[in-house]
């Protein structure tokens, strides 16, 4: 549980504080700076090392389409888990037809350098290195006769894409 006490934010546990910081979109500046006023040095150290809370402009956001959010919700329901226990991870790797390729996986753990993007309860995780390649892009879920898959569409950081839909050339 968290509560405001004067100009300080007091948390009943470090674990709950991390959950709030990672999950709650309004936990950002200037509220984050108020955590520095918490008397516990241990808590401040935890936030400095383990939590990255950023606010993104619309151009910096990795957008999630409704079909992507819906498919992720379906997967969560099939597994019987909450949105915090099953998230979609997008990463960019070297390789593919055009030099780089998108890789999607399901993940249950946040990493310290992850950026988290949300839509209707669905969460998309992007690591710091991959974020530079997908900033401003849109993640979609497409269902076609030959395959159904999560895809990246409208990526402003790519100059060309391969017909396979997973490979791209970076600007």
Automatic annotation (TrEMBL):
SUPFAM superfamilies: HesB-like domain. InterPro entries: ATAP (IPR016092), ATAP_core_dom (IPR000361), HesB-like_dom_sf (IPR035903). Pfam families: Fe-S_biosyn (PF01521). Residues 62-165 form the Core domain. One of its GO terms (cellular component) is mitochondrion. It is found in: Mitochondrion. One of its GO terms (biological process) is iron-sulfur cluster assembly. Gene3D superfamilies: HesB-like domain. The keyword S-adenosyl-L-methionine does not apply. Transmembrane segments: none annotated. Keywords: Iron, Metal-binding, Mitochondrion. GO terms for molecular function: 2 iron, 2 sulfur cluster binding; 4 iron, 4 sulfur cluster binding; iron ion binding. Its main location: mitochondrion. Belongs to the HesB/IscA family. PANTHER family: IRON-SULFUR CLUSTER ASSEMBLY 2 HOMOLOG, MITOCHONDRIAL. This is ISCA-like protein. It comes from Klebsormidium nitens.
